[in-house]
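Chain X:
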Amino acid sequence: MAQTRGTFRSLGTAVRLMVVCTVALGVAYPVAVWGVGQVAFPSQSNGSLVTDQDGKVVGSELLGQSFTTKKGAVLDQWFQSRPSAAGDGYDANASSGSNLGPNNPDLRKTIEERKQALAEADGVPAADVPADAVTASGSGLDPDISPASAQQQVQRVATARGLSTDTVRKLVDEHTDGRQLGFLGDPTVNVLELNLALAKLS
């Protein structure tokens, strides 16, 4: 009998401990973290969503998206993101790179085709097309391009919108972010934010 009471007492202690831990770690802690995020970093904790001038959510500054037709044709009036190998392109449910090595013949062929297409679209020599304009990022969701890739597209975008190249080039400069902390990484241009600024300008 004493052994049975001891067993029930241990079981009761275990159940109470489980309830306390569930409430503390499964409810109170997540709610506290969510609350701190909403107060201290509301934009980041809600996905860094970007809205247009009408207040409509058009994407996230952390996720790349396509500015081409469904068949992949370049829309001349927009700056283009770097290629994506995530699903059918920029699919957040299938984030990944191509997993093809630099000497893979299929990858080399794809890069060459992209280079020729961009050189023709942007009116530049194929040799001048930046590497990030023809290669997908590891995640397939990179929202940024290099300043060189953005500058290469200035003439095409300006012509399509009837704007001066100086005006569009200045817009690119204004949306170029420097290195993190002044020395980490490379300067970048967020394509979605640049295109939204372009839409307002036009």
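Chain Y:
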Amino acid sequence: MSCEHKFVHLRNDSYWRTMGRYSREFVSIDYYFCEKCLEEKSVRKSHRCEDHELSDIPDWAKIINNKIAGYD
């Protein structure tokens, strides 16, 4: 029997890290589950930029303040 999925947002993990001397990567992962069959899925977004491009990053990346170890 096939499920007509109804996905519900479960949580979001987001972070940024340095990728080089003057570059950063912003990552956001949204996790969802189907409330009917409990199947899980995730949607990953990432954006890399140079430090001088920080004013032009996407809105979803502007709210990320969790820094993880990277190139440092």
